[in-house]
Amino acid sequence: MKKTSIFVGALAIISVTALVIACGKDKETKAFQSEETVKESNIDDMSIYLKEFKKKMISTTKGGETLSIDDACWHLEAVLNYTYGNAGYQTSDIQYDTFYYQLNTDNEEVTLSQLNEAFNAISTEVENTYELCNLTNKTILALHTEFVNDAKGPGVVIKTILSTRGLNMDGNSINLWFDSTDYWHELYQDFGGNIYAGGKCGPYVGESPNSGAPLELTRKLNLRIPRLGCPQGPVYYTDIEDGFLGLYGSDFETGFLYDANSPCHYKLYYRNDNPEEPWANNPSRCICPEHMNYYLSKGMELVNHYQPAGKNIISLYYSCDEILGARYGNCFHFMYLQYGIPHCNGGGGDE
Fold first, then answer.
1. Mean pLDDT over residues 20-43, rounded?
2. How many CB atoms lie within 10 A of CB 4?
């Protein structure tokens, strides 16, 4: 089994706590519940296969059996998700954590013993990090692994990204649109807990200083992702693929991101202080509720348009970048996406 290639671009992950929610639209509430069910046809086969593979991997009698680098990467990611994944819940907040493990191999093969050692080491990191995570109603959403060549010597470095999800809600429902108080500054970044954020703006300047438009869009859009339910056990993902979506190349002029009806002419927020582009000018850097709802309304359209065939959206995260020039500056919003193939852990359980 082969791991699929990276979608669109690389996912730049930092430790992030992500939640969400309006001129022009009525308030809308929705109960939190599973909206779709994983098809029965592929429930047991994958879980049974991974259960048997894991038994073989941890067995003391596995001998010198080997896998190719690509197969080792696929199996490690799949077994980690089979073991820890529990993704079938509505999500508002996401925390990303990244681990590294040195796998010493002198060729293009990995023994089952080496793979088991990597699995045990990464599992320890996952369990310790999950224990420290303070999200409400938390479960592990996904684990994505990449094998990266080690420039310092033979072998590879295993990069693992852990996505832990949580849900903050008022009773059994939440407003899925921004309301009349949702004036948000264009900036939000979390540099490993060092938050760079603009908070609320306009009539509500000074409120919610540890948030900003990208974080608020992230929270509300993750709430809109249909969550898969399983009749027999937790949902987990394989063949996880990261993607990056931003304003590059032809997207500025004729790409799918262009929209003449947008406040800034794009489906992702863009601010340019160049006086020759007044349609993208926003000197206050404040995004009003009506405009926040526009970008929110385009979120799932972008997710679906760039979705790889045969995969489901797992999670997404808005980020931003500010570029200051001698004459004028600008700000871009980006979207990081994660897709995968869903399965039910219905293969008899993980013993």
1. 37
2. 16
* Residue given tokens 């649109």 in the structure block: 177
Evaluate whether residue 165 is within a structural domain: yes
Nearest C-alpha neighbor of 187 from the set 252, 264, 269: 269
3-state secondary structure of 8: coil
How many domains would you assign to the chain?
Answer: 1
Question: What is the rounded average pLDDT of the residues 114-142?
Answer: 96
In a domain, 29, yes or no: yes
* Domain span including residue 45: 17-342
Q: What is the pLDDT of residues 165-193, one digit of tens each?
A: 999 765 445 678 999 999 999 999 888 77
Query: Would you say residue 69 lies in a domain?
Result: yes
Entry field: residues in the chain: 351
Place of tokens 């045990």: 120
Residue type for 262, please? Answer: S
pLDDT of residue 273: 87
Q: With beta carbons less than 8 A apart as the criterion, state whether 198 and 186 touch.
A: yes
Four-residue CA torsion sign, 62, 67, 73, 79? negative
**Looking at the domain assignment, is residue 324 inside a domain?**
yes
Closest CA to 3 of 84, 98, 64, 68: 68
143 within 8 A of 77, measured Cβ to Cβ: yes
Instruction: Return contacts of 61-64, CB within 8 angstroms, 24+ apart.
Output: 62/112, 62/113, 62/116, 64/111, 64/113
